[in-house]
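This follows on from our talk about sequence and fold. Please put the record directly below this note.
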Amino acid sequence: MKTKYLSPFVLLIVISLSACKSSTAPGPKGATGATGATGVTGATGAAGAVGPGGPQGVAGATGATGATGATGANGTNGTNGAAGATGAAGAKGATGATGATGANGSNGATGATGATGANGTSAVIANYVFTNQTVVLAGNTHLLVPAITQAIVDQGIVLVYFRNTGTTTSWISLPYSETGNTLTLQSYGVGYVDLKANFTSAGLDIRVVIIPGTSLTTLMLHNPGLNLNNYDQVAKAAGIN
């Protein structure tokens, strides 16, 4: 009888089966095998549809203002262009507002007294001005007035006014009294007037106006309410320049 030999592969299976039958418990975990090589990257898939936009976020705070940059250098001036032709004259503008009145100039020196003119139609037969006179405390100030005739003494009137020499203020009539100082027409007669003062003062202009009686009546008739103490009124009524 021939002896049959089993192949090693069959023998191994038999041994393994035998071993399995003898124990069901798993054996210890073997060591982790080496990582296999990375496979080839697959093709990129098609892009998906765009999703809806999200809500807009809250605006961030404004950042601080940056520092001002340095000023650049001035460029060179260009050449002046040629002068253009003169344009047509514009329309006349509206008249401007009236300017403020200028200050009064200084008063000129008082001129010399002119000669007495011939009698005209004026109601005044004489109008004398004595400039830069002095009145004194002791005695009278005597002025020669040739136009005072006996007819004037008997029927007319003699008016006397004064003011400071070199001024243009209104003439002040006599008698005058202020702060205890008095100046009066003491008397008058043929060819003169006498003034009396209780003080001494230089630099006075004295004006003597002589009106005959008939002319005085005419003046008062044509100028009711005429104030003989107001030289401006008398001069206007009598035609004194």
